[in-house]
Amino acid sequence: MHRKATVETKFLRVATPEKPLELFNGERLTDVTLAYETYGKLNANRSNAVLVFHALSGSAHAAGYNPEVPGVDNRWTDECKIGWWDGFIGPGKSVDTDHFFVICANYIGGCYGSTGPCSINPATGRRWGRSFPHITLSDIVDSQIRLLDHLGIEQLHAVMGASLGGMLSLSLATRYPDRVRTVIPCASGLLVPILTRIHNFEQIYAIESDPDFKGGDYDPLHQPRRGMALARMIGHKTFVSLDAMAERARKEIVRRSADLSWYDLTSPIESYMLHQGAKFVQRFDANTYLRILDAWNRFDIVREGVAEDLVSLFERCRQQKFLVFTIDTDVCYWPEEQEHMVKTLKKAGIEPTWITVHSDKGHDSFLLEPHLYRPFLRAALMD
Length: 383
Description:
Blueprint: E1 10-15, E2 21-22, E3 28-29, E4 32-39, E5 49-53, E6 89-90, E7 95-96, E8 101-105, E9 120-121, E10 126-127, H1 137-150, E11 156-162, H2 164-175, E12 180-186, H3 194-209, H4 225-239, H5 242-249, H6 268-283, H7 286-298, H8 301-304, H9 310-314, E13 321-327, H10 335-347, E14 353-357, H11 365-368, H12 370-382
Parallel strand pairs: 5-8, 5-11, 6-7, 11-12, 12-13, 13-14
Antiparallel strand pairs: 1-4, 2-3, 4-8, 9-10
């Protein structure tokens, strides 16, 4: 038996024909299900809830051991079975489930149980595929607000997330300021940096250029493998520091690749990158990846928050506490992005706590090094 606590994914229908989900672009979704997990216990006055937003290719499974998720086909690989933030969430951990009721949901547009391109379109009886609409981060937030309503949570004790999850935390904080007390974005920003936007577009182009993509009409069991693998390699080099990548690559075997007809691999780092791409193809869906990258590149917190500018947007949040994390070796959301965030918050009359984490792991430090975040998270949450 697995030693970690076994958890189960739950499902909630948050949109129906009678109560559709209105998307930011004006379209409607009339049948939306969210996959979510909870950890810990909701207290009597429902004041101890913490909502965690996952990053780009994460899932609702943030902690514990989950052997399977219904309807996820073969994407639920061994890599997915331990919660992606298991080092952070649990009894006595940074987000202490002896005190807090923690919620994490898979995004709409996702491929781990929530309604997305892999789901059945009730209007056609077939998978949504390429016809699944464009979504924004505000749409993801709106769907999860409905989950909070279902759970009877009027105000969150805290909302938190790293990378894309940090942007979602900021979206919720500014669009629903009365629904959260503490906001904790990590390795994130108020804008999409130019280099990040370019990397995201390169990934989109790699998938779209694969002949097996078929304009998005591929068989989900026969993915555009090369395009997906290349996309992941493009993204991966921004998530892991070069030093950490070189260290991991020492364990990789240099060998020929069936995907290369002329070039022979010359370095362990090349086989390491091919391995990262191949792993990702097994566990994720191409149309889902495009939808989330698209939402990331479209992110406009001022427009989605219906404000004049960043300062007026965050003036709504003066009753909230902010803990902002920077990772000093991050090349996905450079430290300058958090500096800009902190300056904006101060202009809006908010005095955030700003912590710089010194790590050799790069952007992925927020997944790998819970001990570096623990004292600051515990202080912010227990205050």
